[in-house]
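Practice problem 4.
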């Protein structure tokens, strides 16, 4: 019952996910109940709940199709990152971003250092959460399995809330330790964060989740745009995902 022992106090992060007029407890307990870890319901797409009704083969086939739709946003996001490189004022940061985009285009999985070196670009102009364009937010919403069919101000609010909740979950998971999670919990955690874990070995899933947590726990609240883009940066070339 590893996850059931972890509590995190941040009810305000639920934002619009909470029903107006209802009392939301200050401490939300992460419970091991399928995919429901105590986070807002919209964090977990309904399609993942098919594990309770479908056979394992049906689940894998469906998740593959669903993830294929999700990955359609990846080239769009990477193209946008290339376009904003000239807007980065610092020459060193421009070089790091160019190198990262080149690595990803050539099929190389970036390191934690590669990604964290760009944190300044994602805390303000041109890639801070408040500077993202509507088309970019729509693509990022699809990558996060959120509806893109909202006005820009609602897309921004939803993405902000979504990543703030995941950031808090990441801190709880890091404190608990990836080794304490079951295989199902590890694969679900990876899928929530952008990695199609259905065909990846348990050890590789744990390694990837460890990299994600290392990045996430290094970021400040103002840098959560980097965590949002990390859904693509860290997953697109990971072993077993280029099928």
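Answer key:
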């Amino acid at each position: 019952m590893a996850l059931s022992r972890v509590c995190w106090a941040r009810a305000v992060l639920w934002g619009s996910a909470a029903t107006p007029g209802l009392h939301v407890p200050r401490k939300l307990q992460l419970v091991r109940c399928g995919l429901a870890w105590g986070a807002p319901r919209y964090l977990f797409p309904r399609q993942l709940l098919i594990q309770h009704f479908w056979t394992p083969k049906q689940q894998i086939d469906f998740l593959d199709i669903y993830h294929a739709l999700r990955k359609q946003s990846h080239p769009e996001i990477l193209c946008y990152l290339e376009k904003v490189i000239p807007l980065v004022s610092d020459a060193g940061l421009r070089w790091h971003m160019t190198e990262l985009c080149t690595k990803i285009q050539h099929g190389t999985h970036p390191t934690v250092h590669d990604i964290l070196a760009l944190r300044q670009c994602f805390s303000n102009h041109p890639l801070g959460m408040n500077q993202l364009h509507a088309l970019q937010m729509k693509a990022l919403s699809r990558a996060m399995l959120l509806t893109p069919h909202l006005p820009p101000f609602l897309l921004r609010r939803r993405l902000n809330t979504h990543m703030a909740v995941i950031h808090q979950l990441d801190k709880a998971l890091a404190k608990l330790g990836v080794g304490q999670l079951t295989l199902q919990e590890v694969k679900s955690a990876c899928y929530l964060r952008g990695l199609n874990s259905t065909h990846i070995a348990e050890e590789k899933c744990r390694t990837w989740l460890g990299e994600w947590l290392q990045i996430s726990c290094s970021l400040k609240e103002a840098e959560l745009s980097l965590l949002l883009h990390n859904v693509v940066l860290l997953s697109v070339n990971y072993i077993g995902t280029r099928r």
